[in-house]
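Good day; I would like, with your permission, to put a structural problem before you. A protein sequence and the structure tokens that stand for its backbone fold form the material at issue. I would ask you to consider whether the tokens describe a fold that such a sequence might reasonably adopt. I set the record out below, with my sincere thanks for your time.
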Amino acid sequence: MGSIDIQAFVETSFTASRALKLNEIVGDCGITIMLGGKGAGKDRFLDWWWQVGASSKSIPEHLRVSPADMVLINLVPAPSGSVPVSCVAFSLILDRLKRLELVADGGRLAKSTERTKRWYTEADFLSRFFNDVLPRIQDLQPRVVVIGNAQHLEKRALHWLLLLRTYAEQGHSARHALVFSAQVEPGGEESSKFAKLMNGQSETQMVWSRKMLLSPMALPEFAAIVVAFVRRNLDAVFGSDVNANGVTKEFYEWTRGNWWYIHELIKALDRALGPTKKSGEPRVITEAVMKRLRETWVQRTGPVKAPEDSGEGDADSGEGDADSGEGDADSDEGKADSGEGKADSGEGDVDVDEG
């Protein structure tokens, strides 16, 4: 995952709750699974979490995790059916470990200039795993390995990822946490290929029932994020001839809380507002601006179909552990925690401060 403009991410009580939960899992060297459909914001959240959220002052000091203690990759499909997925996954992990070595040696987190050797076979993988990956894991001792796009994993790669937690010593205690983030569309979590993979290993099967489900955000969270984008990123305010609550609800109907559409909306609104004022005064969202925006939005994206209700109901605020399954299971076992708050349809009033 590439570096992002942190100002483009808005932290809310929902994201803070997820961040705290992940940090607690890291502290326990546990395992957790994050699932969400397209536009749910999984990658965006993890990008923010590893750069800022995990080490935020809002996290208790003993739970904070530095970016230099994380190995985070975004998995891609193997280039061909003959190349094991483990080759792809661990070549990405090795590249990340080399970059962390630069930090440990006093450098900064940057792309490695060393040309990555290609891994094509199981023999290539085994050689690099024991000669390159494992020694660096033992030396750097990262606190967590995060696998984005984990839906591309297969059984063999999962086996080695789990074994890596114990430094390839069967039966020994885990030395780092493991986070899987996978794209699975709402409603298909239990019947997906990824579900079958996770339930095929004891360690991941034990935490599957406490997976984190991310869905497109509900209206309250959306309103807080849009207002922050308007003020902080666009340097704008709502004019007296528009109803801020009504505009926010209209934006929600356009995007349905989908991060991709939100990103496009902010860019379109920026163009509709016109250039920034030389006087330094904020730009104003007027009815004329909204008219231009509506015309542009329909031309560029067309109507946005609302996603189907995933039937998650109320999600709790982060109670219940999603650990490695070691020790006693608490009373929340079996609850799929989305950390999203109520996923309502957007009805009701949402207070938007127009000042």
